[in-house]
Amino acid sequence: MRSDDFFQLVRSWLTIHLPRARRLSPHTIRSYKTALNALLDYLQETAHLELMTITFDIINWTTITGFVTWLLDNKHLSAATANQRLAAIKSFLSYCAGEDPALVAIWLDVKQVRPARAVVHPPDGLTMSAVEALIRAPGQHTSRGLRDTTIILLMFDAAARVQEVLDLKPADIDTTPSAGRVTLTGKGRKTRTVPIMDKTGRHLDQYWSEFHPVAPAPGAFFFYTVRAGQHHQMSQDNIAYLLNKHAAAARQQCPELPARIHAHQLRHARAMQMLRAGVPLPHIKEFLGHANIATTSIYATADNKMVREAIQHAASSTPDLAPIWKGSDDLILQLAGLK
């Protein structure tokens, strides 16, 4: 099979199948593209192949197993990230098998490659005192402070992924008192509508008045940056910068804030808060937009505080047992087998 056939299928998968047939987001497609580029790097580095010589003939169980090991040992990726790369390669080969029956055997062979065993780490959510300190840090005496406060508060309140907040349009936001909500577009372009606190709604209204004084253009992003006089969507790097900037200031009053923080910690903190408030896991699953409740259950297994409190509560409600070792000293020693 020719190299042209391989790269022609790569191109049609990335530019036609994923965006048009499967309607995946640009972010997901970039992730798939990264996986393919990593595979090409692996083949060039380990098999000393030039791009023009790479064909499907080199793709098999042994090659892809070695690729996963290379990602872990040479590129020092986590097991979870390596498994994402593996899943992308399998998805590509599944598509190829559908396009060319001659490639079915390759797909079935690679399909048997087992994912790397991932260590499940408990969610690294911020404590509530850390969340409160972070929300207060930007202040609201400047436009930028108002913007940053609104972003941090909304990410926490809606337990939103950072890209879900960045993708918000004005039409996705309803700040009606006692009925406020935002519609988030998550992974796989799946949407979910989550309620927000009235306090969050008031901050959104203030931001709206300041940053959208006239009706925004259709398709305009709610949160934006200005470059060369034009509005542009904020990036995840923008969010990472403002979070760590304000965390550095908030750490003066709240030393428990970690040295570096990321947006997902606000999402974790909200999920843990809901769990401790007694919200059932299936409801938290829908709120977070998880596809599988097993993902949500990590919060339950990680919450040692809840387990400890439950054990202490159970112990306090358990009556003291009557002692079974009672009587004279001789009797106790006999019962214990010491006489």
Structure description:
The protein is mainly alpha-helical and 339 residues long. It has two domains: 3-111, Orthogonal Bundle (DNA polymerase, domain 1); 128-311, Orthogonal Bundle (hpI Integrase, Chain A), CATH 1.10.443. 56% of the residues lie in helices and 6% in strands. It has 15 helices and five strands. The chain has a three-stranded antiparallel sheet with strand order 1-2-3, with no helix packed on it. Strands 4-5 form a two-stranded antiparallel sheet. A hairpin with a 6-residue loop joins strand 1 and strand 2.
List the keywords.
hpI Integrase, Chain A, DNA polymerase, domain 1, 2 domains, 15 helices, 339 residues, 3-stranded antiparallel sheet, two-stranded antiparallel sheet, mainly alpha
Topology overview:
Elements: H1 3-21, H2 26-46, H3 61-73, H4 79-99, H5 104-111, H6 128-136, H7 143-157, H8 162-166, E1 173-174, E2 181-185, E3 191-195, H9 198-211, E4 224-227, E5 230-233, H10 236-250, H11 264-276, H12 281-288, H13 293-302, H14 304-316, H15 329-335
Antiparallel strand pairs: 1-2, 2-3, 4-5
Helix pairs in contact: 1-4, 2-3, 2-4, 3-4, 3-5, 4-5, 6-7, 6-10, 7-9, 7-11, 12-13
